[in-house]
Amino acid sequence: MKFFKNFTKINILIGVIALSALVLPTLVTFWLTKRNDAADEKLRNIAAQSEQKMIVAGTDLPNDISINNPEENSSQDIQSAADTAKESDENTVKVDNTKENKKSTNIETVQLEKDTTDSTALTTPATAGDATPAEPVKLNGKKVYLTFDDGPSDNTDAILDILAEYNVKATFFVVVADDSRADQLNRIVAEGHTIGLHSKCHVYSTIYKDLFSFEKDVSQVHNNVKRITGVDTKYYRFPGGSSNVVSDVSKKACVEYLHDNGYEYYDWNAESQDAENMYLSPDQLNSNVMRSVRNNEGNSIVLMHDLDDHNNTVSALPALIETLQAEGYELCPIDENAPTFQHYMPE
Question: 186-205 burial string, b = 16+ CB within 10 Å, else e?
Answer without folding.
Answer: ebbbeeebbbbbbbbebebe
